[in-house]
Amino acid sequence: MVSQGSSPSLLEALSSDFLACKICLEQLRAPKTLPCLHTYCQDCLAQLADGGHLRCPECRETVPVPPAGVAAFKTNFFVNGLLDLVRARAGGDLRAGKPACALCPLMGGAGTGGPATARCLDCADDLCQACADGHRCTRQTHTHRVVDLVGYRAGWYDEEARERQAAQCPQHPGEALRFLCQPCSQLLCRECRLDPHLDHPCLPLAEAVRARRPGLEELLAGVDNNLAELESARMVEKEALARLREQAARVGTQVEEVAEGVLRALLAQKQEVLGQLRAHVEAAEEAARERLGELEGREQVARAAAAFARRVLSLGREAEILSLEGAIAQRLRQLQGCPWMPGPAPCLLPQLELHPGLLDKNCHLLRLSFEEQQPQKDSGKGEAESQGGDETQSCREDGAKSERQGGIQPQNRDGAQTPKENRAQTPQEDGAQTLKEDRAKTPQEDGAQTPKEGRAQTPLEDEGAQTPRGSRSNKKRKFKGRLKSISREPSPAPGLNLEGSGLLPRPIFSCSFPTRMPGDKRSPRITGLCPFGPREILVADEQNRALKRFSLSGDYRGAVPVPEGCSPCSVAALQGAVAFSAGARLYLISPDGEVQWRRALSLSQASHAVAAMPSGDRVAVSVSGHVEVYNMEGSLATRFIPGGKANRGLRALVFLTTSPQGNFVGSDWQQNSVVVCDGLGQVIGEYRGPGLHGCQPGSVSVDKKGYIFLTLREVNKVVILDPKGSLLGDFLTAYHGLEKPRVTTMVDGRHLVVSLSNGTIHVFRVRPSDS
């Protein structure tokens, strides 16, 4: 049974939209109730009736229309009573003196009554003061309740008026419904009671309600129990959905961690193998050069002796020939006796060995499995206990929970699935294409090289392939998402955060190439990049003190000579000249290396960012919290402080080609933000939000539409911002092969060039959002 406290109040029923039709949204008129207990206007239901049926607009239940039409649906007397109460409360305007007495015209015979000041709750009539005083002086009305009209209209007597309210018979106006015909289950007035229900057993309404209320309350209690069960089931569904989302987020994090670990291992192997290849080629070239030098020396000696002997034989006299004959013969015999050709040098040609899984198109590096969720009370216990002792130790508490709810399934060293579930094995798991026990299991991507021996151990090898079988259970906790098989297909890159930003540019990988040249004595350390001619870039290699030219496809085009002892840091290309910073100086040189001018900069800053203005005839450099702009003659054209604050330290600088006002973007290491300024140094946008991941902002580049590309070296990302400095999302991540990105530049507004800390350069084509 519903408690009194949970029952809806009369005030709530009168003030809510309970009395409004859900079809026309107006107050109900001739309310009819459907079998689903939803009430609508009779005319509104008539418009919905179609082919003898209608569908409830709220619960969508199909209801048959009675043969007599929608008028045969049950009249909702409950709603009618509430509507009568609402209409009575809303009738007339007391302040204008409009309400009139309902009894005065009956007694006077003509005209209207005096102004009403009271209301009889039993008769539902408005009364003047005189009629109100005499209303209770008759035998028939002495028990009636007469109240103040102002208080009635204010709702003070709603409950009492509702108790005294009587439903009116629709067939006999003015007659109240007083009886219930039990065989017909029909409400009757006194006129209806006489015919045709005269012989039917009838009960007064109060007695009939007392007899039928317990049955209704019992049914209502059963529905309340169902509602409680539905509420409980709804909460269980919500909890299950929350667990699903939580587990999906956890598995997504696992996938990212595992994929990043694999990519790091793959890139490490790539660099190691390429290093081995370079070392082998350099050693072979050095040995070949020594042998070539020795052969060239012997060839020169033999040619000189042969030429001398020919001259003597052709030009010498008899006495001269005979006098030199002994020496010439001795030398020629000596040369003939020498071993001209040394033994064949060993030629070890490098060969690429691929993991067998790379050749299988059906194998997958990562795979999901889905299991039915278990009750929450058992979630802390691992259900998937293995049958062997090793596997039992490895099923730790959160590992088992994540596996039950759809995590990445573990895999043992032999490639077979753990006893979590019985499923068909892949060809790799069957052992046909797996590596041997003594060989490291390292997934490869797109033909990367895998040396047999002498390479660094990857995290996955530390975890499974080279770990004794008895101790593998303690290693499994490192990656909950285990690798099931090897796949040639790279993991998909994560999508951009497009909330509120619409479509954004997307990266398309173009090529990758190293910047180390044969003459370099050290590994490259790229500190500056800039466009240099059509589809060409200029690379500042600070470690090797060189400005190198490369095409976008990686072809080496030579170098721009720099003054002796200079280590170029930041670089920018101007009209027919190159500007770069080195130490505490700014240089402007011609493409053939001639120094046109140099300027001393502040010693308080370790490095100075250099950028060419869009006009190409001026160069800007960051110096101790401000920016100085020089013209082609080396004169200081202007000097301004970004935002009027001298406590900024710009470590990267680039001008917006889309802005005729000379707007520029800078990475502020002191404020740990990205700042966008106009040509006068006024800040028009700044970002220092959580999208920087707590990292110092690095190199910045701008495409032809004004999008800003910011390098975050510590997290291996390049993020994208709009022209006003608002973060839009990630553009490049570790999925794109970024390993400690250092410097970027934009070529032709369409190609983003990214240099890594190891000297490798990646080129990405920026695909516009409207293409």
TrEMBL record:
One of the entry's Gene Ontology molecular-function terms is: zinc ion binding
Biological process terms from the Gene Ontology for this record are: defense response to virus; innate immune response; positive regulation of type I interferon-mediated signaling pathway; protein monoubiquitination; regulation of type I interferon production
Report the coiled-coil segments. Answer: 227-287
- Where is the sequence biased in composition, kind Basic residues? 472-485
Outline the extent of the B box-type domain: 164-205
Q: What class of enzyme is it?
A: transferase
**PROSITE patterns referenced in this protein's UniProt entry, alphabetically:** ZF_BBOX, ZF_RING_1, ZF_RING_2
The answer to whether the entry has keyword tRNA processing is no
Q: Where is the composition biased (Basic and acidic residues)?
A: 374-384, 393-404, 435-444
Looking up SUPFAM superfamilies in the UniProt record yields: B-box zinc-binding domain (SSF57845), NHL repeat (SSF101898), RING/U-box (SSF57850)
Q: Where is this region: Disordered?
A: 372-500
Pathway stated in the Swiss-Prot or TrEMBL entry: Protein modification; protein ubiquitination
Its chief place of residence is cytoplasm
Q: Which reaction does it catalyse?
A: S-ubiquitinyl-[E2 ubiquitin-conjugating enzyme]-L-cysteine + [acceptor protein]-L-lysine = [E2 ubiquitin-conjugating enzyme]-L-cysteine + N(6)-ubiquitinyl-[acceptor protein]-L-lysine
Cellular location of this protein?
A: Cytoplasm
Protein family membership: Belongs to the TRIM/RBCC family.
The protein depicted here goes by the name E3 ubiquitin-protein ligase TRIM56
